[in-house]
Amino acid sequence: MQSRNSTTLNPRTAYLMAFDLAGMFVAIVVAFAVRYEALIDVGAGVRANWILFVIVPLTALPVYYAAGLYKRLWRYAGMTELRLILLASIISSALFYIVNFFVLPALNLPYCVSGSIWLLISLFNLAFLAGTRFFLRLLQERYRPNELAELRALTKTTNRVLLIGAGDAGALIAREMQTKPLLGLRVVGFIDDNPEKHHRSLLGAPIFGDRTAIPEVVARHEIDQIVITMPSASGRDLRDIVRICERAGVHPRTMPALHEVINGSVSLTQLREVRIEDLLRRTPVRTDIAAVEELLRGKRVLVTGGGGSIGSELSRQILRCQPAELVLVGHGENSIFEIQNELRLEIARMTGGQVKIRTVIADIRFAERIANVFREVRPEIVFHAAAHKHVPLMEENPAEAITNNVLGTRNVVDAALAVGVQRFVLISTDKAVNPTSIMGASKRVAELIVHDAGRRSNRPYVAVRFGNVLGSRGSVVLTFKQQIAAGGPVTVTDPEMRRYFMTIPEASQLVLQAAVLGYGGEVFLLDMGEPVKIIDLATDVIELSGLEVGRDIEIVFTGLRPGEKLYEELFVTGEHYERTQHEKIFIAGNASTFVPEHLEDGLAVLEQLAAYNDRVAIVRGLQQLVPEFAPPQRPQSAPEQRAPARISAVGAAAQPNLPA
User: Which phi and psi angles does 360 have, rounded to 5°?
Assistant: First the structure.
């Protein structure tokens, strides 16, 4: 029920409108004084054009009110408010012109015949409107006595800040510091690599030069803090800038990357320490967010491995697309519990439609259990992220790689086909390309299972390959940090080892994009740039911890572990890759042609071999399905069980007509 006074003006609005009305009267008088000077009597001119005191307020005040100029909090006025003032002034001036020169003459009413008077009144009205609003901002920015006391105390300990990057982001951070002195931060100046900006100023602060000037500026101006204000800078540039800052004796901070801001996880003005993810940053993948939202909105979406690093980030991004229901399937109850609570808190903050969250504790290795889950939920889109990914551990436990990565994928795919899942996306790895490890070979077989399902069903069942994921469980970066915390040494297998790296949000975006682009049986791959040497990564992590290699922390080389390669490959021989409409995403459209005819028989053999954990037989079974699998030679371990000769023979030959 509306209040009785809901249509009346509140006192603040009434005062502002009265003030604007007085300003309009002043603008009319000043316009005549400027236009005619001493040529005629100003008073006589004003009296003769008394109609202006009626039509100017009648054409201006309603426009100001409709534009919301009386609802704004002018303490926070900026460019948005200035544009609004300009738009309201233009519209009111246009109405003034139409009424004065067309409507009034048509009605035989008095009007002002001078076009210059109209123009002057419009300009003075604009100046008065903008001037009074920003004067209000200045008045409202005054400090209370307690704030003044804090400010006086801070002026004695204010940190002198150097900003790296004199662009929009740098201006945003500088303005934040300048308008909030209680932060205790004073902008001394900027560094920018664009020579056209050098020796100029931004918001009153000088732009000293490019990044090579950082040490000199730090020493001359006694810089306390350096903030890197380049959210879209490449990892290479950030690594170089961080090293220069460290050599200058100042540990830099940075603003969030663009993908963090876009995802809504942080604000652009939230400064933080430089992380290793920043140093490996690439140009963000241009994701068709609208297409992804259109695909997922209102759908039932299921994510296996929903509590894992990739699965949980996928769930966060899927939630923002507002599906009808999001089903999280996972074997680890603690991780599922944590992501469930996080997503429900996010739903409570969401506006608009509500998303139903369902959690399922289930092991993908149990076919009937997974089939029952799918029959109950009946998902429309599935993201299969559940997998064992640790290479050395899978070398020691080959049966686990088979039962989880291979047979588990088969169970999920079969359940999806049985209930008519429209789209299926497998999260794969670059280790599946020309694999040398059981883990990589098992993921390659998982790809073949999905390709076969896409070919048989004529539905978009696709796979997505990407490199190592920073921050995921078992990530080398986390291992380095643990070793540094323990006092070292940091262990690297080989000085020449290189890997492709991605951030968790970046990988998740690629997975979601593949769901849109896929037609069935394809492999998608991100253009991951240049591979990173692991020793360089270790050095960066040590230096970001404020330590020095050789003095504080040693790097020790331990040699390649079983199944590891010095470098990862991206393309399977024979797969034909081309760029999609997204310049950073490749697609191999002929991936399904590599599915062997005896796939089902080979899977049946692997299922029996896994029961005995017979590594030799499992390797042979994998090689029958993945001929390019080249495991390293290693001696037979004593405790390892041997499969019966009959099954071993089938594993070696993978004959379709032999019993499994």
Answer: -130, 120
